[in-house]
Amino acid sequence: MGIISMIIVGLIVGLLARAIMPGDQKMGIVMTIILGIVGAVVAGYLGGALGLYEPGEGAGWIGSIVGAIIVLFVYGLITKKR
After folding, report:
1. Which of 8, 16, 33, 58 has its CA 20 to 30 A from that of 2?
2. What is the DSSP code string of the chain?
């Protein structure tokens, strides 16, 4: 159940980040799931580095969405240069 729940949470976080971020992001459902999962990981590392989370503690929903927005912003910068 851990992988399935991670995919579902990644999908929800990715969809929310894409809805909040202005502009048109051309990515499919798989990339949206990956965006949400990577956003949660980024939020966990940044929160740990800033002292917001204890070691081993995962990021919350809001932190995951903020992390996904950061990843989506960087992804947009990389794909626009092509």
Report:
1. 16
2. -HHHHHHHHHHHHHHHHHHHS-S-----HHHHHHHHHHHHHHHHHHHHHTTSS-TTPPP-HHHHHHHHHHHHHHHHHHHHT-
Would you tell me how many other CB atoms lie within 10 Å of the CB of residue 48? 15
Query: Using one digit for the tens of pLDDT, what is the confidence trace for 18-57?
Result: 999 888 888 889 998 999 989 888 888 888 888 887 777 7
Nearest Cα residue to 67 out of 17, 32, 21: 17
Structure tokens at 58: 């995962």
The closest alpha carbon to 41, from 59, 24, 23, 55, belongs to 59
Query: Angle, to 10 degrees, between the axis of helix 29-49 and the axis of helix 61-80?
Result: 120
Question: Please, which residues have CB within 8 angstroms of residue 18's CB and are 6 or more apart in sequence?
Answer: 25, 27, 32, 35, 72
